[in-house]
Amino acid sequence: MPDLSSDASEIRSATFRLARRLRQQRAVKTMSDGQFAVLVALKLHGPHTLTTLAEREGVTAPSMNRTVNHLEEEGYLTRRPDEADRRKVNIEITESGRSVIDETVHRPDEWLARLLAEVPAEDRATLRDAARIILEVIER
Questions:
Q1: What DSSP designation does 48 have?
Q2: The dihedral of CA 113, 114, 117, 118: what is its sign?
Q3: 107 touches 25 (CB < 8 A)
Q4: How far, in Å, CA of 78 to CA of 114, rounded?
Q5: Which of 25, 35, 56, 115 has the least CB density, counted as fewest CB within 10 Å?
Q6: Which SS3 state, helix, strand or coil, does residue 92 take?
Q7: C-alpha to C-alpha distance for 29 and 23, rounded to whole angstroms
Q8: Alpha helix (H) ranges present in the chain?
Q9: Dihedrals φ, ψ of 23, to 5°?
Q10: Within a 10 A sphere around the Cβ of 68, how many other Cβ atoms?
Q11: Mind listing the domains of the chain with CATH numbers?
């Protein structure tokens, strides 16, 4: 088997730098990946209790409470008493939180599209092929 460590390093470095530059395009620059993940989970899966949200994200309840407190202070989510069990509190995403997700998803695509507009069509086709190949390799 050939030594592919140099190829692996070059691909890892390029994808890492691209991922970092894409993250820099997020709507709220001060929002952590963990905070953004909580908003996405709430948008995709609906309201959660603090405990179920912590379990979904693989963190402790006190850690999730800090995250939820911060996101609530920023207006990205809200807490509402459970209709069936008033002892429970459900955490829900707000319209402002949905907007942050939508913009955070949209902005990196726009940024990358602007860069790709300056790349020759043949190279763009090569990049599309590379993206497809990378996904095939990592999904094996």
A1: B
A2: negative
A3: yes
A4: 36
A5: 115
A6: strand
A7: 9
A8: 5-23, 33-45, 50-57, 61-73, 95-116, 121-138
A9: -65, -30
A10: 24
A11: 5-138 (1.10.10.10)
Structure tokens at 42: 């709430």
Angstrom distance (rounded) from CA 131 to CA 63: 35
Mean pLDDT by runs of 10 across the 140 residues of the chain is 90 94 89 94 96 95 96 97 88 97 93 96 96 93
Task: State which amino acid sits at residue 99.
Answer: S
Task: Report how far apart, in Å, the C-alpha atoms of 133 and of each of 11, 22, 84, 120, 136 are.
Answer: 12, 20, 49, 20, 5
Burial bucket for residue 46 (CB in 10 Å: 0-12, 13-18, 19+): exposed
- Residue 99 has which token pair? 């907007």
Q: How buried is residue 16: exposed, middle or buried, by Cβ count under 10 Å (0-12/13-18/19+)?
A: exposed
How confident is the model at residue 85, as a pLDDT? 85
Opening angle at CA 95, ends 93 and 100, nearest 5: 85
Q: How far apart are CA 41 and CA 94, in angstroms?
A: 13
Spatial distance between the Cα atoms of 46 and 41, rounded to a whole number of angstroms: 7
Specify the pLDDT at position 1: 78
* Total residue count of the chain as it appears in this document: 140
